[in-house]
Amino acid sequence: METHSQIPVNWKFLHPKLKFVLLFIGLIGSTFILDRLIFVSLFFQIPNEMEWDSSPWYNFLHKSYSLKKEKGAHRTIITGSSVALYSALPESLTQNLNGKSTVDFYSHVAMAPSDLYYYKSDLLETNPDLILYLFNFADLQWEYLKPVGSKLVFDETTWRNEFSDRFPARVVYPKDYLVDHWSLLGKKTITKLITKSLFYVNRYRVFFWDPIAEYLDNHFRSGRKYHIYQGEKPLESIWSKGWTKTKATIECKTQNQLESVFVQKRNTEVRFRFSNSKENLEKGAFESVKVFSKSGWNDLDWKEIAPKDFPWVWVQLEVLTNIPTAREVGLLRNGTDENVGLRLAHYFCKTPKFGGVSYLRQSFWDDTRFLTMTEPGYDKDYFERMVRDSGNRHELWRLHVLREAKKKISSIDYHSWKELERVYQISDYYYKNNIPFVFVLTPENPLEFSIYKDTEWRKRWVAEVKNHLTRNNQQFVDYTEIIKDKRLFFDPHHLTYEGAKDLEPHLLKTISNSMIKN
Question: d(Cα 184, Cα 281) in Å, to the nearest integer?
């Protein structure tokens, strides 16, 4: 007997088990729909006001999402790990290319070759016309190589288990990683990856509140809580966390009635000088002194300390008493200490311009200060920051492993391993998809490159990578020794801002030559 389509089904006469099944299917279905609506369609519509080197996974996913929506006349994508992020300045490169190409990052911290292997199709969806893979010796995952006789053997079991717990596998490609390795993973890991594959809320919860909190901080709070200083920069430079030197000369373009400064010590005396030009600050300027009786954030009311009878544009702040040091305020753990002044509010003397800074690196005293050191002074500072007791300092453990690897390869035979094979697979993928692909070895600090520079292992490695790329009609560029001044490096592999500017003409040449060739 057929049921007429217009006769409604009586829910109360359904079997209890069938009711449960239907409810379960409905619940799961609505959960999937809601999950994708919120975390795929809506989440990345939130204005991204995150700053450089903050919330790296949100910024990476947001950048990927944005690149897929946009399409310029010619797009150059720079990919790689933090070494790539610290080696290139996309906005500056774009300006210097004069409209020939728009340069963007598709990069995040600790991006291993295996990560890019899993991203390769996603990167293809960003419509690149040229890909620059900025690569470094540090990217080869040396912590998974163990010395066995005259070889270094890749510990794939440890690699597989640890990679499954890294942010990229948990947040970006859990399904792909699970499909490739499920037969060799434990039940707990499999369950975790299945859950993250099914529900975006499980993936994104680690950074879900980051862009929301940043938006609230920027628009509804005092500017006292921030990651990187975005205000007017003093002529003397400023630390990225907003700490001035003992003297700070600022062109105050936006004179808000109330500003904020952070004072490290109680009863700190600060002299203010006001003038309509920077030339008049040292003589003929209006001068006042204010004592901050309490430490921490303090209000700064210009009406109380600024001149009332003539307009001013320039202000000079100078800490006279109770001067703190960079180590005291948490800017340094080790290395050469120096005096600092006050910490300025987020947008001190500047009209806020929110957004568009998540991959925008700026020049700060954190990097510039190295160029003021003598070479022996830099060597001493570098030893204290990067070498001394590195095997027992958690923040330096990976650098210690890399340094030891550089020493070992002088006495071992060359052979390839998984992470290096990934480079070849990535190269082949873009060759098959007709995307110009350039492999760039980034500069290394002369202090540490000398450890393995002349080893047979490195010569063989460079030759093999170059040969593979040549077979695919792709470019191999070696900039390892292009920067001679060690003071342009923060550590063994990361360039300072000034170092990135020094590398820029070479990257411009590489991009331009690639565009002509292709």
Answer: 69
Q: Tell me, what's the pLDDT at 215? A: 93
Whole-number Å distance between alpha carbons of 300 and 258: 6
Backbone phi, then psi, for 186, in 5-degree steps? -75, 160
Contact 419, 140 (CB under 8 A): yes
241/320 Cα distance (integer angstroms)? 21
Q: Average pLDDT in the 295-322 region?
A: 93
Please, are residues 344 and 230 in contact by the beta-carbon 8 Å criterion?
Answer: no
Contact 279, 295 (CB under 8 A): no
Q: Which residues of 78-90 are buried (b: 16+ CB within 10 A; e: fewer)?
A: bbbbbbbbbbbbb
Q: Which of 70, 56, 138 is nearest to 104 (CA)?
A: 70
Closest CA to 103 of 118, 119, 87, 114: 87
Following DSSP, what letter does each residue of 78-111 receive, concatenated? EEESHHHHTT--HHHHHHHTTTS-EEEEEE-TT-
Helices (H) and strands (E) in the chain, counts: 19, 14
What CA–CA distance (Å, rounded) separates 139 from 142? 8
Beta bridge partners of 78: 105, 132
Distance CA 310, CA 105 (A): 47
Percent helix, strand and coil across the chain, each to the nearest 5: 45, 15, 40
At CB < 8 A and 24+ separation, what contacts does 43-48 make? 43/204, 43/208, 46/211, 46/212, 46/215, 47/211, 47/215, 47/354, 47/355, 48/211, 48/355, 48/358
Q: Are 473 and 430 in contact (CB under 8 A)?
A: no
What CA–CA distance (Å, rounded) separates 469 from 429? 12
Q: What is the pLDDT of residue 1?
A: 40
Instruction: Choose the weakest-confidence range: 98-102, 118-122, 245-249, 426-430.
Output: 98-102
Question: Which phi-psi region, left, alpha or beta, contains residue 164 (left: φ > 0; alpha: ψ -120 to 50)?
Answer: alpha
Diameter of the chain measured on Cα atoms:
104
Question: What mean pLDDT comes out for the span 452-478?
Answer: 95
Confidence of residue 440 (pLDDT cuts 50, 70, 90): very high
> d(Cα 165, Cα 144) in Å, to the nearest integer?
15
Interstrand relation of 296-301 and 258-263 (parallel, antiparallel or unpaired): antiparallel
Apex CA 51: angle with CA 362 and CA 323, to 5°?
65
